[in-house]
């Protein structure tokens, strides 16, 4: 008999959190139900219909007519890698904008793919100025230009249309990270002429993590078709993946069936609400949280001019124990918020108001709970000021 | 208002299949329930416990003490890529055994990673002889030797212990695909000294597709630590992934939370049954199916000496329409079986008896349904012979 050295762990029983960190966000019960629906095969006619439905809905949400629009079988970072490795061949020049952790990650991914990378760097929390982009792309003449629409590490909201024009005028492809922006703020893939765009499921789409929606413009496809070398990653090679998502239905890898069920349901919820309503909801709840936070005497880490609604980076007051507050929120209230990343580690909290999480109820309970934690930390926020500030913003 | 060009697709309503193809296999209701449990954050203490539980259970199932044992955040093919790209640097020599589609895929992955690949090729359905391995590794002196334990495209069961010894004597690392074997036939990672082993969740573990269990020996770790270049894939770079699964808990990418819930539950079911019992069940149902298939006058595509129990490749009789039979099984009976891949396309059916799917009930209904389909195709199987043959094998 084979020896067993461990007892079987107890049944799964996850705590019920309010996910107000930088993602994952809360999932709608309909999405969880879809996730747990019976598995069918990856070439089952029913699953092919699920894929078609999701492609159509993703095009709506990305605001594009791009044929090559699908969900990569990995989390958002795999979508980043898919966009980079399909466009870059060893020796190609790429400009990457780095004003947070995810820009830094993109530069790393690009270098591993063999790109000669030029970085445009800005301190965490700032955005990338268009005139600097113009100067650098003129000098470098890159094949690909990469930028983050919504920097999850800082909460900075990067304007894209002007930069996209500059990048195209320089003959480069525009590669954009929309992991945190998709479904939460306006994104116009076709109108802004974005060429390779990836996102994640677990932010403003409110689907559990595990897939990465991507879309590629005809210009990006032409660049892929003109490659002289194979894509370094077999798993992420769009020349094969597209033949499975396209009408050929050529087997590539076994798709994550149930995750695709969940994405389809999450997209249905997005379309039922409507993109404009969804953006407005994200904005409204952000403004209320911001009013409450500032009424408590706390400050945002990012100027209002480019502050994302779904990711609120808030300066931790002097004398407050970062980890203690986050633990108290989690253990006493079941509220998850995020800590800082990179140069913002220990300096900010990141409060997410993404997708299902973005609600009046969550804004108010978060402010109330935070008030108690700050009192327990010896701070003296004016009693009830946070909640009152938010309520005033809502009325 | 943003224009919408499509109606919202109808609610999800997948058909209830019996998944008797090459994977995914049927999932236990407990696994589906786990999949749909409330999402928590990827750094939530509860989720870290889920990861620890799964690592421990994966070590049991892989039969290893390897510290670096975890679930890659992608399907089985991403596990293949993870094993290859973490061990191979450009210019490294790798020998890959190709006797089916998945060996061919591994060679492709290795070439993309920059390996100088030498193939040991055998016709589909055959296994790789140890003496040929000895000759080739002596000549090539590779860094890595790659082989498929259970060729899902052919149903061939590759013996490993003797080859592993030969490979180690030549100073190479032993990289093994166990996508279809793990949980269905004996696999002894430590005893056989396998160095890099990957699997999938959707075969004999009976969890939906989306994760790839992997394990690396200390010898493989030493090779990774000795690398001079960064791993080409950021997403699959084990030097970072291991710091998230290890006690540092360093953020790398957002783990697919709910898929990891499901894997944990699937592993609990495996341990509750016990590996030996599970292997015996797979064998028993295979032998019954085989008795039934042969009683109907059909033939296996692979000799009994190396025929996998969970993947039964059966020659399609002359005059029978492959696609028509598979469609009839699906549409009339809700039974999915697989067609042939590569050189076996149109020549074989692949009947999977994997994990939850491997049951007496499924064997009997499959044989009965197949008899009807063959009759409808103008064949003349002896009435009831398939079912009677299987019942005799069970008694």
Structure commentary:
The structure is a homodimer of 395-residue chains. Chain A is of the alpha/beta class and 395 residues long. Chain A has two domains: 29-272, Aspartate Aminotransferase, domain 2, CATH 3.40.640.10; 275-394, Aspartate Aminotransferase, domain 1 (Alpha-Beta Complex). In chain A, 41% of the residues lie in helices and 14% in strands. Chain A contains 13 helices and 14 strands. In chain A, strands 2-10-9-8-5-3-4 form a seven-stranded mixed sheet, with helices on both faces. In chain A, helix 1 packs antiparallel against helix 9, helix 10 runs parallel beside helix 12 (360-376) and helix 11 (322-333) packs across helix 12 (360-376). The longest helix of chain A is centred in the C-terminal third of the chain and has 21 residues, at 275-295. Chain A is globular and about 65 Å long. The mean pLDDT of chain A is 97. Chains A and B meet through helix 1, helix 2, helix 3, helix 4 and helix 9 of A and helix 1, helix 2, helix 3, helix 4 and helix 9 of B.
